[in-house]
Amino acid sequence: MLKDNRIRMIIGHYGSGKTEFAVNYAINLAKEVGNVALADLDVVNPYFRSREKYEQLQPFGVSVLSSYVKGSGSDLPAVSADVLAPLQDKVSNIILDVGGDSMGARTLGRYKEYFVPGEYDMFCVVNANRPETQDVAGVLHHIDTIERAARAKVTGLINNTHLLRHTTVEDVIKGQELCKKVSEVLNIPIKYIGVIEALVEELPKDLEGTVLPIKMIMREDWM
Asked: Could you give the CA distance from residue 167 to residue 196 in angstroms, rounded to a whole number?
């Protein structure tokens, strides 16, 4: 069960697998509850955009909201007003897929009034195989810059340590150890472990956090 607050922000450094996790999370959430929306607020990274998978997400009951301005012919740093509806609707579940740095997180500032402590979650996706977040200092710096820009606090960690299809159990364990250290410093939990489906049964059973099997949706088979 994905028992989180109905407003969920997913942040993470470029290359962390943030959007892949967000899309998989949305699909799994829609299997449990109704009124699920995934808002693509990443106005920084032009690649691997969650809005590009709307046709795959709609059959699961996931509404996809985009930062794309229709008719513009390009991505602009603007956010559709459609995001406001699920933020305001107390029975809606919304996932905000946010740009991977402090500049991207500034997009959240316009929605600050909805980020009431205890009514939202902001999860930081950590990939210990990325240079920027391979140690405690790097992760803490990333979280600090995001929190300042978003004007909201991170409430949980996601260990999404991977090397795409070359990921090993050892990679996941390495990421878990890093997340545990960050968890202790910030006094926030490890909420999820994102791991490719083939490795799920090989993981130790006593890891903190809910294991979320990841299907490679954002990347084509050849990538």
From this structure: 8
Residue 85's SS3 state is: helix
| Number of Cβ within a 10 Å radius of residue 46 | 9
Residue 159 · residue 175 · CB < 8 Å = yes
SS3 state of residue 31: coil
The pTM of the full predicted model, rounded to 2 decimals, is 0.89
Query: What architecture does CATH give domain 7-214?
Result: 3-Layer(aba) Sandwich (3.40)
Note the pLDDT tens digit of each residue in 181-202: 999 999 999 999 999 999 999 9
Domain parsing of the chain, residue ranges: 7-214
- Lookup: tokens for 199: 């490795």
* DSSP H or E run through 136: helix 136-150
Spatial distance between the Cα atoms of 216 and 93, rounded to a whole number of angstroms = 23
